[in-house]
Automatic annotation (TrEMBL):
<dbReference type="Pfam" id="PF00174">
    <property type="entry name" value="Oxidored_molyb"/>
</dbReference>
<dbReference type="GO" id="GO:0016491">
    <property type="term" value="F:oxidoreductase activity"/>
</dbReference>
<keyword id="KW-1133">Transmembrane helix</keyword>
<dbReference type="InterPro" id="IPR036374">
    <property type="entry name" value="OxRdtase_Mopterin-bd_sf"/>
</dbReference>
<keyword id="KW-0812">Transmembrane</keyword>
<dbReference type="InterPro" id="IPR008335">
    <property type="entry name" value="Mopterin_OxRdtase_euk"/>
</dbReference>
<keyword id="KW-0472">Membrane</keyword>
<feature type="transmembrane region" description="Helical">
    <location>
        <begin position="86"/>
        <end position="106"/>
    </location>
</feature>
<feature type="transmembrane region" description="Helical">
    <location>
        <begin position="21"/>
        <end position="48"/>
    </location>
</feature>
<feature type="transmembrane region" description="Helical">
    <location>
        <begin position="127"/>
        <end position="146"/>
    </location>
</feature>
<feature type="domain" description="Oxidoreductase molybdopterin-binding">
    <location>
        <begin position="291"/>
        <end position="424"/>
    </location>
</feature>
<feature type="transmembrane region" description="Helical">
    <location>
        <begin position="158"/>
        <end position="176"/>
    </location>
</feature>
<dbReference type="InterPro" id="IPR000572">
    <property type="entry name" value="OxRdtase_Mopterin-bd_dom"/>
</dbReference>
<protein>
    <recommendedName>
        <fullName>Oxidoreductase molybdopterin-binding domain-containing protein</fullName>
    </recommendedName>
</protein>
């Protein structure tokens, strides 16, 4: 046992695939991909309008981290479908790249001494935060996509604050390592002709350079070339892409999303056969509470309170909008044809000719977004409806009967189902 090298010894890690250029290529892929993930994640956070009202803000202690927030637009109507679809699908696609990158640098985690200089100490610290942050963000993201809430607390603050910790470590690491990564890529291009001319086409182990800790002084016999390793990583990413991206589409493409909860065949048949997150039963919606005798919509505004039955709502001017549903888990539907009363018309009923913000409350008794706020620009959009029907038929209980909100470009949780009360005005 005494002769066995320790993990801190270069001889412990013997794969001939590891090397600074292998790591550099993976790092540059992650540099582009994670930047897109961070930007689309910030856009997803902004789409909730957390600065509008406390009911929308699941991160009240964010402080300066909310510096970029803005009024989320309603155009194009597929905006959230695009940004969140890219965020989740790209995140899943990058998992093999991330794992390969972590595997490629694992010798550095055990290298001694822990710090050779201040710059090296910062690099090691950023690496630890980077590895921990990456694993945390990808694991919580995948669990949320799979609807498995195994982590303590709410997904929203955990993923939001974790993203900032991870991105700070990521930026620090990039600043410290990018010059070396570029140097290794230039060296790779310079040696390509030499390698192509080697007898037998084999690949020689990389000579130790600045990152010689990644290169084994006694490499094992190769079982795969570096090119083959890149192929395995890329193939894994393409496989994950092919088996998840379909949940952002309807029809045959959705059936290819075999790894996604909202993949496969659409539920049921008929006009209401499109995806949902929560059923009426799961949300605790009782049939007696949505019956014609029991349910009334309560509108509160400048002129007081107005109560409307579903029959009275159906007698008001009806409008239609072709809008998708898109959720934070990355799944979405194509445009559905919604029919109902415009939100701005309901605001006018209680004295608001200029559409104001609105607080929407659901019959649902529990859940993070059973109460949600919409901005004035969302209320005022002619496509924003209190929907009573979809695709020519009454809403089903699972789609929000007797009435639900539908707003262009809004996250699914802001399209409140089983609406009971709407309060217009300053929130």
């Amino acid at each position: 046992m005494r002769d066995q090298p320790l993990p801190s010894s270069p001889g412990f890690w013997r794969s001939p695939v590891r090397g600074p250029r292998f790591t550099a290529v993976l790092g540059l892929v992650l540099l582009g991909g994670i930047t897109v993930l961070f930007v689309t994640g910030l856009l997803s956070y902004a789409a909730y309008n957390p600065d509008l009202a406390a009911v929308n803000d699941k991160t009240p202690d964010k402080g300066l981290l909310g510096f970029y927030l803005f009024s989320w637009p309603t155009d194009p109507p597929w905006l959230y479908r695009l940004t969140q679809g890219v965020h989740v699908t790209l995140g899943i696609t990058l998992i093999p790249v991330l794992l390969a990158k972590l595997w490629s640098v694992v010798p550095k985690l055990f290298a001694l001494p822990p710090a050779r200089s201040v710059a090296h100490a910062l690099e090691r610290l950023s690496l630890l935060l980077l590895v921990g942050g990456a694993l945390f963000e990808f694991v919580t993201g995948v669990l949320n996509v799979q609807l498995d809430y195994l982590f303590p607390g709410s997904f929203y603050p955990l993923h939001f604050y974790g993203a900032w910790v991870f991105f700070a470590a990521f930026v620090t690491h990039v600043v410290l390592r990018l010059p070396e990564a570029m140097r290794q890529l230039r060296a790779l291009r310079a040696q390509r002709a030499v390698r192509a001319g080697r007898a037998g086409g084999g690949e020689a182990p990389e000579a130790p350079a600045e990152e010689g800790v990644l290169v084994s002084p006694d490499p094992a016999a190769p079982t795969v070339s570096r090119r083959g390793a890149f192929g395995l990583v890329g193939g894994g990413s393409l496989l994950l892409l092919a088996t998840t991206v379909g949940r952002s589409f309807d029809g045959p493409l959705r059936e290819t999303a075999v790894l996604a909860p909202h993949g496969g065949k659409d539920p049921g048949s008929g006009p209401g056969a499109f995806q949902i997150n929560k059923t009426a039963a799961y949300a605790g919606i009782r049939e007696r509470d949505t019956s014609a005798e029991a349910w009334q919509l309560v509108l509160v505004g400048r002129r007081g309170t107005v109560r409307l039955s579903r029959t009275q709502l159906l007698r008001r001017p009806q409008h239609g909008s072709a809008l998708p549903i898109a959720c934070v888990e990355g799944w979405s539907t194509s445009d559905q044809w919604w029919q109902g009363v415009r939100l701005r018309d309901l605001a006018a009923l209680v004295g608001h000719d200029d559409p104001p913000d609105v607080l929407v409350e659901s019959l649902q008794q529990r859940g993070a977004f059973r109460r949600a706020a919409l901005r004035a620009n969302q209320v005022g959009d002619a496509r924003s409806l209190l929907a009573l029907a979809v695709n020519g038929v009454d809403l089903t209980p699972d789609h929000g009967y007797p009435a639900r909100i539908i707003v262009p470009a809004a996250p699914g949780v802001l399209n409140t189902k089983w609406v009971a009360r709407m309060t217009f005005g300053d929130l």
